[in-house]
């Protein structure tokens, strides 16, 4: 991996806290593994659950100082900001409705934020948070972790260099099957809050995984969305939010060619799909295909020539992919390492901020603006679907 600049090194591990992610939470453990993979962060504080007893028990399991286990994020932000050894960053891994108020509390306390997606429950509150990020100047990282896979970075660079020619078609899909039945009725925590509009916002599968598919399509293609036509369904009886999404996309003209078109399919009621994220991009000179289940492979097809397999750290892999790779070619890297790459990029930005500087230009992570764009996507999809798929401008 490429060495960090002098402004991004030194000063020891970054002290961080966590909001949410206590007992029974999947994504909190993922964040903690990612944060410690490169020894860039050390967890020292937490408000790990809205249930004080569970928060205390979770903190004990993680070995946190009992005095730094807090009953609420507001208490944590206030107390940690006063400590000489207080946290420098916070990871917010809660249901969606907590993201904005928690982020606001820590940003205004002078603490950097690493936040799970989607950013908010409404576009309006996302924009308000963006204004706070700009005002405070703090680092804000949104954990769209798939953008940090080496072969996704490879694909992005190939598109940017014009290897595919003028981009014509972008297709992204993210099918799962875990909500094929009414899992929330059993009391399963992860299903329950995702199906509650008060906690999840206006999007079900749309917000949970559709935003990943959209973000990945935007990240790799470099295109900006102009209008969309969406069809949202809740197939499971009684479900309040969508569990299947079909979206047609029209991208903004680049000034060179006919505007690119695209499609997104996201579903949590597709039996046989565990976590089927896939991206396909086609241009005037060739096409690319990446599948998250085989993340170390990128298929490239120059028009009129045989399909080529580019492997992580193998022949044809570019430096941008190598920079976020940890092991030699042929050794699998995947979800946890991709997540850790987001934390490593965040660490470089936070260490630069320690010295009142900026990270190197090669540091790439999803920002507050990606979160705002994700919320605009959700709201446009919901609006379009309510109008029987009417084309809707973002």
Q: Judging from the principal axes of the Cα atoms, what is the shape?
A: globular
Count helical runs: 12
Instruction: Count the E strands.
Output: 14
Proportion of beta-strand residues: 15-25%
Task: Characterise the protein shown here.
This protein is an alpha/beta fold. The protein contains twelve helices and 14 strands. Helix 4 packs parallel to helix 5. The longest helix has 20 residues, at 335-354. It starts with 13 loop residues before the first strand and ends with a strand.
Architecture blueprint of SSEs:
Elements: E1 14-20, H1 26-36, E2 41-47, H2 52-62, H3 73-82, E3 89-93, H4 96-108, E4 112-115, H5 123-136, E5 140-142, H6 150-160, E6 167-175, H7 189-194, H8 197-200, H9 205-221, E7 225-233, E8 244-251, E9 261-267, E10 278-283, E11 286-291, E12 297-302, E13 308-311, H10 319-322, H11 335-354, H12 368-386, E14 392-393
Parallel strand pairs: 1-2, 1-3, 3-4, 4-5, 6-9
Antiparallel strand pairs: 6-10, 7-8, 7-14, 8-9, 10-11, 11-12, 12-13
Summarize the structure.
The protein has 394 residues and is of the alpha/beta class.
Task: From the structure above, extract its key features.
394 residues, 12 helices, five-stranded parallel sheet, globular, 21% strand, alpha/beta
């Amino acid at each position: 991996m490429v060495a960090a600049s002098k402004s991004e090194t030194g000063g020891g591990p970054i002290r961080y806290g966590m909001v949410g992610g206590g007992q029974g939470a999947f994504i909190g453990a993922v964040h903690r593994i990612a944060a410690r993979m490169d020894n860039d962060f050390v967890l020292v504080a937490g408000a790990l659950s809205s249930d004080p007893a569970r928060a205390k028990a979770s903190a004990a399991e993680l070995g946190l100082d009992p005095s730094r286990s807090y009953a609420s994020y507001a208490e944590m932000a206030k107390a940690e900001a006063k400590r000489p050894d207080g946290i420098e960053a916070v990871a917010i891994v809660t249901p969606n409705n907590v993201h904005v108020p928690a982020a606001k509390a820590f940003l205004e306390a002078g603490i950097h934020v690493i936040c799970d997606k989607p950013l908010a429950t409404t576009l309006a509150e996302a924009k308000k948070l963006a204004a706070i990020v700009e005002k405070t100047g703090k680092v804000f990282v949104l954990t769209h972790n798939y953008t940090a896979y080496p072969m996704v970075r490879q694909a992005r660079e190939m598109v940017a260099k014009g290897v595919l020619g003028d981009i014509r078609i972008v297709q992204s899909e993210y099918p799962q099957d875990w909500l094929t039945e009414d899992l929330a009725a059993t009391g399963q925590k992860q299903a329950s809050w995702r199906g509650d509009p008060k906690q999840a916002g206006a999007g079900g599968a749309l917000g949970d995984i559709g935003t990943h598919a959209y973000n990945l399509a935007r990240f790799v293609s470099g295109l900006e969305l102009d209008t969309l036509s969406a069809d949202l369904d809740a197939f499971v009886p009684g479900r309040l939010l969508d569990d299947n999404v079909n979206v047609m996309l029209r991208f903004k003209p680049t000034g060179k060619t006919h505007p690119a078109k695209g499609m997104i399919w996201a579903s949590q009621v597709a039996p046989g799909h565990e976590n089927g994220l896939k991206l396909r991009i086609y241009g005037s000179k060739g096409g690319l295909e990446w599948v998250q289940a085989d993340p170390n492979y990128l298929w490239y097809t120059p028009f009129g020539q045989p399909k080529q397999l580019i492997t992580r750290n193998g022949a044809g892999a570019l430096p941008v992919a190598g920079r976020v790779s940890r092991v030699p070619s042929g050794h699998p890297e995947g979800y946890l390492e991709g997540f850790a790459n987001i934390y490593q990029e965040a660490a470089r930005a936070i260490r630069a901020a320690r010295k009142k500087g900026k990270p190197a230009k090669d540091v790439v992570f999803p920002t507050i603006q990606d979160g705002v764009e994700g919320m605009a996507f959700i709201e446009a999809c919901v609006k379009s679907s309510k109008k029987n798929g009417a084309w809707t401008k973002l």
